[in-house]
Amino acid sequence: MARRITTQRKVIVTAVAWTIGIVLFFPILWTFLTSFKSEADAIASPPQFLFFHWTTENYLEVQSRSNYFSHFLNSVIISFGSTLLGLIIAVPSAWAMAFSPTKRTKDVLMWMLSTKMMPAVGALIPIYLLFRNTGLLDSRIGLVVVLMLINLPIIIWMLYTYFKEIPGEILEAARMDGASLSKEIIYVLTPMAVPGIASTLLLNIILSWNEAFWTLNLTASKAAPLTTFIASYSSPEGLFYAKLSAASTMAIAPILILGWFSQKQLVRGLTFGAVK
Amino acid sequence: MATLHTRSAARMMMAPSVLLLFAWMIVPLVMTIYFSFIDYNLLMPSDNRFLGFLNYEFFLTDPAFFDALINTLVLVLSVLVITIVGGIALALLLDQPMFGQGIVRILVIAPFFIMPTVAALVWKNMFMNPVNGLFAYIWRLFGAQPVDWLANMPLFSIILIVAWQWLPFATLILLTALQSLSEEQKEAAEMDGAGFFSQFVYIILPHMARAITVVILIETIFLLSVFAEILVTTNGGPGTSSTNLTYLVYNRALLQFDIGGASAGGIIAVILANIVAIFLVRIVGKNLET
Fold first, then answer.
1. Residues in contact with B37: Cβ distance below 8 Å, sequence separation at least 6, in sequence order
2. B6-63: pLDDT as tens digits
3. Which residues does chain B have within 8 Å of residue A89's beta carbon, measured at their own beta carbons?
4. Contact B203, B192 (CB under 8 A)
5. What is the mean predicted confidence (pLDDT) over A123-151?
6. Which domain range does residue B143 map to?
7. How far apart are CA B140 and CA B143, in angstroms?
8. Which residue among A30, A115, A228 places its CB closest to the CB of B25?
9. Are A106 and B288 in contact (CB < 8 Å)?
């Protein structure tokens, strides 16, 4: 029996929840609106909400002035590159731990988790010097490797919790039917593992796209992803709110959309499976 | 025989990730420890001579260290309090039946996906700017003198920005935990005449306890390393009033080029983070067994 809910109560809850939701979302909405304003409208007082002259000139200007899409491309290459590289290394590892666990498996997992706890400043200095001496500073490949390493524990953990849920009986059944190991992997396990791998991929792209410690410290211009590029707006020259907003909108839109699709996976991935 | 075969195969499959993570953990750490004991400055040619604990002594007795330590603690604790209390309240609210629940959820979650540099710069310029910011406009609307947020209350402003980014995370995790509470349990309590308050204290809060702990510990790990938000808004200033430990080490290493001193600071940050990490690993570990 469902509990009785009065309409009046539902209306009040709706009003309060929507108000809070809009307040929390407002900075993002405001950035989006400002990106279509002229620089004069962007700082107009009183602020202009909808009835201003809508223009797309900021988007064109951001691109022509600072070659925006090269930074966008850097973000794509770095986040996808580090995620795919991470998956290549993590899938066999998580697979082995999930399907042929030993009594040390749990310790290995805990140890992997503990490497994630190491604060970045503890590694910043040697990594910076190593990169400087080997010419990896401001290179995409260097950042791909570093971001892969910092996210590897999360990737393995997430994959492990997904693989754990694949029932072992199904493997036995396949073996009884005479499937070889390779057939078992291709026809039985892979189709069941794909959703978990896809979720892990999604969450990890979000995390690497927004990573802003290593990207800020290890890139300057050539390999700079959007995090670093946007940071260059912190030292303004003249009027720039509308251009900052246009650059920001393009930087956050793809991830916002991906993020909304991956709320559930986010909980699982970021709590290392402790909350599902 | 088959098991022996799979076991060695399993080891082969795990080897790359274990070796990589081991190297990533140990190589930078050993190098940082080594640097922290020598005289090493990128600007001054020196003989890299052994200094013993001198770097540590300088770092720990520098007034900036004490400021940074306090700022780090204030930042972490304030954001934790705001996000946990706000997160519990929001989770309870979003768990109620309402119109358009899915959309509200999306609106509330959104700030978590905003990259730190964008979040910080949007707040800094479009909200907290004392001339053109929206806050200044609202202040003037009520006849008040606009506040120069980042100059006069730098740490508070950064806390506000970081809390805005992390409130969605706490809400999402706590809401997920709340939704796993069975309806029957709540109904039984209601039939026994439990009001909202006693339901909250005796049923909801204990049910969310583990999720709350997980949120606290994970947020702590990330909040100890807040960096981009400080870099693009205040540069740690004015003075050291918004410098945290992470920013101080960055400042020593990459702005003052004092590798030795900065490394000592890095090791101190590692030790502090480890104290937190021990608790986190225990809690998540306990969870694995169930």
1. B50, B51, B52, B53, B55, B260
2. 778 888 888 899 999 999 989 999 999 999 999 888 887 777 888 889 899 999 999 9
3. 16-17, 20
4. no
5. 93
6. 19-289
7. 5
8. A115
9. yes
**Domains, in order of start, for chain A:** 7-57 (no CATH), 68-270 (1.10.3720.10)
In a domain, B185, yes or no: yes
Chain B residue whose CA is closest to A205: B113
Per-residue pLDDT at A1: 42
> Between B86 and B198, where is the model more confident?
B86
Query: pLDDT tens digit string along A169-210?
Result: 777 787 788 777 777 778 877 788 888 888 889 889 998 999
Measured distance CA(B85)–CA(B73) in Å, rounded? 18
Length of chain B (residues): 290
CATH of the domain at B49: 1.10.3720.10
Distance of CA A240 to the CA centre of its chain: 27
Asked if B93 is an interface residue toward chain A (Cβ–Cβ < 8 A), one would say yes
B2-36 vs A140-164: helix axis angle to the nearest 10?
140
When divided into structural domains, chain B yields a total of 1
| The residue to which tokens 């694995």 are assigned | B288
Residues in B touching A210 (Cβ below 8 Å): 113-116
Instruction: Measure the CA–CA gap between B284 and B235, rounded to whole angstroms.
Output: 35
Find all residues with CB under 8 Å of A35, minimum gap 6, and list them. Answer: A58, A59, A242, A245, A246, A248, A249
| Rg, Å, chain B Cα set | 24
Is A90–B17 a contact, with Cβ atoms under 8 angstroms apart?
yes
Distance of alpha carbon B19 from alpha carbon A270, whole angstroms: 23
Beta bridge partners of B258: B41
What is the phi/psi pair of residue B258, to 5°? -90, 85
